[in-house]
Design brief:
This is Conjugative transposon protein TcpC. With about 300 residues, the chain is of the alpha+beta class. It contains four helices and 13 strands. About 25% of the residues lie in helices and about 30% in strands. The chain starts with 17 loop residues before the first helix and ends in a 7-residue tail after the last strand.
Length: about 300
C-alpha cells in the first residue's frame, strides 16, 4: 500500500473533565465537614452554657475601701491626747506638740484660748467613719471630769501621711442600751443536782490551774485554769434547761449557766493589813457539758445577758 493511501493515525483523547470532577468531590467533602462541625457545636452549646457557672461579675469598687483606718485611728489618738489635755501654764508646749498634727498656718492651739485647765482620762478608739478614700472622721471616747464624752476628729490622708482636716467636735457618749428581760428556761432539777456535784469539783481546779482540772474536761476541750488569781468560795447558782426547750444544747450536749463566788487572791490584804470582811466576786459562766461515762466540760464562756434573766 502506498504511504499516501494509509489511513490517518487516531489521535488519543485526553481526560476530558476528569480534573474538574475530583475538585468538585473535594469541595463537597470540605463543605460536609464544615456543616458537621457547625451542627455539633450548635448542639453542644446549650449544655455547655448550662453547666458553666454564671459569668464572674466585676468586683465593685468601694471608693472608701482604701482609706487606712488603722493608721488614722492611731494618729487621732495621739492627737487627742495632746488636744484634750491643756494647762494655761504650758500653752506654748502644747502648741508645739499640736503642730505635728495640724496643717501649716492653722490656729496653733486648735481653738483653745490658752486659759484654764483640762484633763482627759481613758481615751479610747470607738470607730472610724470613712467619708472617701482621703477623708474620715475618727470617733474617740474619753472621760472629762468624770463624764463620758465622744470626740470626733476629722482626718485627711495622702501619700501615707495624715493631718487633722478640721476642728474636732465633742459629742455625747453613746447611750446605755436597755437590757431586755429574758425569762429563765424551765429547769431540769434532777440533772441540776447531778451537775452541781461535778461543777463543785471543777471550779476549784479551774481557779488554781491544778493538773486535776484535766479529769473534768472533754477530750476536745481547750480550757486552761486561772493559775490562782482567785480562789473558789462557792457555787451560788446553777441552771440546766430541760430537754426540748429553746435553751437546750444540740447533739446531746447540755448548756449550763452557773454563778460562782470567787475570793480574789490579790484582794485579801489592804495596805498590808488583813481586811475585816473577806472579799468576794460573783461571776456567771455558760458551760457546755457532755455525757460520757460521766459528765465532762467541753467549753466555758461568759454567760450573755445574765443580768436580764
Amino acid at each position: 500500500m502506498d504511504v499516501l493511501d494509509a489511513p490517518p493515525a487516531r489521535r488519543r483523547r485526553g481526560w476530558s473533565g476528569g480534573g474538574g470532577r475530583w475538585l468538585i468531590w473535594l469541595g463537597r467533602a470540605v463543605l460536609w465537614i464544615f456543616i458537621i462541625v457547625v451542627i455539633v457545636n450548635g448542639v453542644r452549646a446549650p449544655f455547655t452554657d448550662a453547666t458553666a457557672g454564671p459569668p464572674e461579675a466585676a468586683p465593685e469598687q468601694d471608693p472608701a475601701g482604701s482609706f487606712p483606718e488603722s493608721g488614722a485611728a492611731a494618729f487621732a489618738l495621739q492627737f487627742a491626747d495632746v488636744y484634750l489635755n491643756f494647762d494655761g501654764g504650758s500653752a506654748e508646749a502644747r502648741a508645739e506638740a499640736l503642730a505635728a498634727y495640724l496643717p501649716p498656718e492653722t490656729d496653733t492651739q486648735a481653738g483653745w484660748n490658752g486659759a484654764g485647765r483640762l484633763r482627759a482620762d481613758n481615751l479610747r478608739l470607738a470607730g472610724v467613719d470613712v467619708v472617701d478614700e482621703r477623708n474620715a472622721v475618727v470617733n474617740l471616747v474619753a472621760s472629762l471630769g468624770g463624764e463620758p464624752v465622744r470626740l470626733a476628729v476629722p482626718v485627711y490622708t495622702e501619700n501615707g501621711g495624715f493631718t487633722v482636716s478640721g476642728r474636732p467636735a465633742l459629742l455625747a457618749a453613746p447611750p446605755a442600751a436597755e437590757l431586755p428581760e429574758v425569762p429563765a428556761p424551765e429547769p431540769d432539777l434532777e440533772l441540776e443536782e447531778e451537775l452541781t456535784q461535778v461543777l463543785t469539783g471543777f471550779f476549784p481546779a479551774y481557779a488554781s490551774g491544778d493538773p486535776a482540772l484535766d479529769q473534768y474536761l472533754d477530750v476536745d476541750a481547750a480550757i486552761s485554769g486561772l493559775n490562782g488569781v482567785v480562789e473558789f468560795q462557792e457555787l451560788a447558782d446553777i441552771n440546766v434547761p430541760a430537754p426540748g426547750t429553746e435553751s437546750a444544747a444540740p447533739d446531746g450536749a447540755v448548756t449550763v449557766t452557773a454563778t460562782v463566788v470567787w475570793r480574789p487572791a490579790a484582794a485579801t490584804e489592804a495596805g498590808g493589813e488583813m481586811v475585816a470582811e473577806e472579799p468576794a466576786l460573783s461571776q456567771t459562766y455558760r458551760l457546755t457539758m457532755v455525757d460520757g461515762d460521766r459528765w465532762y466540760i467541753r467549753d466555758i464562756q461568759a454567760s450573755p445577758q445574765s443580768f436580764g434573766s
